[in-house]
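ok so for the tutorial part 2 we go from a plain amino acid sequence to predicted structure tokens. step 1 is just haveing the sequence, like this:
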Amino acid sequence: MAGLTGLAAALESYRGRDRLIRTLGYSCQLVGGILVGHSPARSEVGTRLLVLSSQLSHCRTVLRLFDDLAMFLCTRQYGLGDEEEDILVRCLSVLGNLADQLYYPCEHIAWAADTKILPVNSARWWVLSTAFWGLSLLLGIARALWMVLKLRRRLRSPSPAFTSQLLRSQRRAMRAQMQSELLTILSNLADLANAVHWLPPGVLWAGRFPPWLVGLLGTISSLLSVYQAIWASGCADPANS
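step 2 — the prediction. this is what the tokens look like for a chain of 241 residues:
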């Protein structure tokens, strides 16, 4: 019952629903791609799973029509990162927020073009939205890598004065943050591989992934995101501190 209660609570939030839809969509693409490509006897089932995956992806695209305001408020709150001491982290975060902010209107225009609401070519706008998404992922990877290096240096600092002043709880928090950053790197790398795949042919490995590989990478990224969300809520629980 506790598991069902937790699932119901997660589904009540927008982010929780989005994680579930994303994980389910990519899982369907993974299984459907395998069945279509390697099991002719079950290709019909695989095709249906691929259709379901496409519809779930479309569902997420429509829901993201309402994300602009939340993203704008997040970007405005962070601003130029004046409270951030590290200049590199500040620059990467500001650029990442800008890429995310530009991603949404490009995707909205592409969706509106596909649905014939706007009389424009959707392909150009899909490419732009994917490029901004890929840029955001790259910046996120760079930021997380830098944070991991910083945390590792602090944890391994040979300075006796530093280690004597650092409480055990602080060191535990630093290790937890480093683990979170490493998971972010892995998740973003999986998504970045798919982002490049969806760029126009001729760009690195664009267009070369079979459906099952896209599904596999997306499923890995989605599961890592779900794990991070569960782990973060567990760390926030005073009983687990």
